[in-house]
């Protein structure tokens, strides 16, 4: 629009904003919606569109304010309360998000998405009975949405005579009537339900189907991912790390917990977060975000680091990286109320960034969470993860684990001895107090008995282990049922003979 043709009503600006949304230009859309708000400040619709765009831009605090403004103008609009709930959820204000979602359901009892999202928040808060009821309400309103069943079965075991079990079995039998993504959700949900009643062979049959369907819709470049793992040891040798030691940002606060998903990292964070001097910040992607800003990026893909540029990085860049990461963490850490001296960052895939972390934050401590290769991979294969593109094909999963294991072996060789501590899940279960004492000592924390009662700690846990860390440790969690050897052949081949032999040795020790 030219200055002479600028409209003086909100409608054209709303249409312009919608057109910008359609072509993916969120910043331009936001400008259009802001113009509409200025022209018609007492109309809720422009404020709603503006708030939704701010949320899409991940400007959640502003989105919250926008939704509250829209609600003040149209308080009985359930969609506005749902949007407010979403913004609050992204800000980690889960209790407030639950209230917003519940208000949406009160205004519109058929708001199944709001019930489902309330269930997600309640599960993260450890309020499993309430989460169970929220998911059940969503199922009753929209009984053909597989996602609600998958969430429902993850809040607790479903008895074989439960009406929902029968509904799920019927839907799974009619899976062909759903699109590919929903078929995958159905098979994962039914596979979980079958496992809960001891029908393990049938469960794995559905997990194989669900994973194959989900893999069709996942973009994953195996050669690129594993190639990066192979290149990092060339860039981060012992000499390079020793020469750069001490040049990054000096604070001692961060404790990075890294490893494969489903390896026990959530449990380790829960133990540390039970210490009065530690704030558990959860899975944070801020280090990776700071890294791609710090290092010159690939011109063809602004989200991908130009590995060649790493060879030219110097002290100034590493120091800036550490400072930028800590700046980005100020928002999440505000929830601690300034009481904790240390914080945990439990993003598993920071295992790739261990070298960067040490250069940028040389006083940070790193905990490597490890578990049996087979048990880790089977646990990953039983779940849908939105950031684990390698987890839906047994061969790809095994090869990824082997590359991860090789990279961690490199970090073990080249890092100073006091930087990284490796914790085996099996050892944590078998020698709990001794392992916790070693963990706290590594992080420079004094002993505190509350770390042994980790399951009593109240905090947000948004990972797939949210239920497990609310319970005391139990040995049966170490080894899950496993299918026949021939069904796992692609996984064993991907893992390779060395890891397969090590896993067999662990199994004998556990037995």
From TrEMBL:
Keywords: TPR repeat, Transferase. This is Sulfotransferase. Signal peptide: none annotated. SMART domains: TPR (SM00028). TPR repeats lie at residues 10-43, 44-77, 78-111, 112-145. PROSITE patterns: TPR. It holds the Pfam family TPR_16. It comes from the Bacteria. Coiled coil: none annotated.
């Amino acid at each position: 629009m030219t200055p002479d043709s600028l409209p003086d009503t909100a409608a054209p600006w709303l249409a312009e904003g919608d057109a910008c949304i359609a072509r993916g230009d969120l910043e331009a859309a936001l400008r259009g919606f802001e113009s509409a708000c200025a022209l018609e400040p007492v109309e809720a619709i422009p404020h709603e569109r503006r708030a939704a765009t701010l949320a899409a831009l991940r400007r959640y605090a502003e989105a919250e304010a926008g939704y509250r403004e829209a609600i003040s103008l149209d308080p009985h609009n359930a969609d506005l309360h749902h949007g407010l709930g979403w913004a609050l959820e992204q800000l980690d204000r889960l209790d407030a998000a639950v209230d917003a979602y519940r208000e949406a359901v009160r205004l519109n009892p058929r708001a199944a998405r709001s019930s489902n999202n309330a269930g997600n928040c309640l599960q993260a808060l450890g309020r499993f009975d309430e989460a169970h009821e929220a998911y059940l309400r969503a199922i009753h309103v929209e009984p053909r949405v597989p996602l609600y069943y998958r969430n429902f079965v993850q809040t607790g075991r479903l008895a074989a005579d439960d009406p929902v079990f029968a509904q799920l079995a019927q839907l799974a039998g009619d899976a062909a009537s759903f699109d590919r993504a929903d078929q995958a959700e159905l098979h994962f949900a039914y596979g979980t339900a079958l496992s809960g009643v001891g029908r393990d062979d049938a469960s794995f049959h559905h997990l194989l189907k669900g994973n194959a369907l989900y893999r069709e819709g996942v973009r994953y470049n195996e050669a690129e991912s594993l190639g990066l793992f192979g290149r990092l040891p060339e860039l981060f040798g012992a000499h390079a790390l020793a020469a750069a030691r001490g040049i990054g940002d000096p604070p001692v606060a961060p404790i990075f917990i890294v490893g494969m998903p489903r390896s026990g990292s959530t449990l380790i964070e829960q133990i540390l977060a039970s210490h009065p001097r530690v704030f558990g910040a959860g899975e944070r992607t801020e280090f990776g975000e700071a890294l791609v800003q710090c290092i010159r990026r690939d011109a063809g893909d602004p989200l991908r680091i130009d590995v060649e540029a790493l060879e030219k990085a110097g002290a100034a860049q590493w120091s800036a990286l550490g400072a930028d990461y800590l700046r980005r963490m100020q928002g999440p850490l505000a929830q601690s109320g300034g009481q904790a001296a240390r914080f945990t960052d439990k993003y598993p895939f920071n295992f790739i960034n261990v070298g960067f972390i040490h250069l940028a934050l040389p006083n940070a401590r790193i905990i490597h969470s490890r578990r049996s290769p087979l048990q880790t991979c089977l646990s990953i294969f039983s779940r849908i993860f939105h950031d684990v593109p390698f987890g839906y094909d047994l061969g790809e999963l095994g090869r990824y684990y082997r590359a991860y294991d090789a990279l961690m072996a490199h970090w073990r060789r080249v890092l100073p001895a006091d930087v990284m501590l490796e914790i085996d899940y099996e050892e944590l279960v078998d020698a709990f107090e001794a392992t916790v004492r070693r963990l706290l000592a590594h992080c420079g924390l004094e002993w505190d008995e509350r770390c042994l009662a980790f399951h009593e700690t109240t905090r947000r846990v948004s990972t797939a282990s949210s239920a497990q860390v609310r319970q005391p440790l139990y040995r049966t969690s170490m080894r899950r049922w496993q299918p026949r050897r021939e069904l796992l052949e692609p996984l064993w081949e991907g893992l390779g003979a060395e890891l397969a032999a090590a896993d067999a040795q662990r199994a004998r020790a556990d037995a």
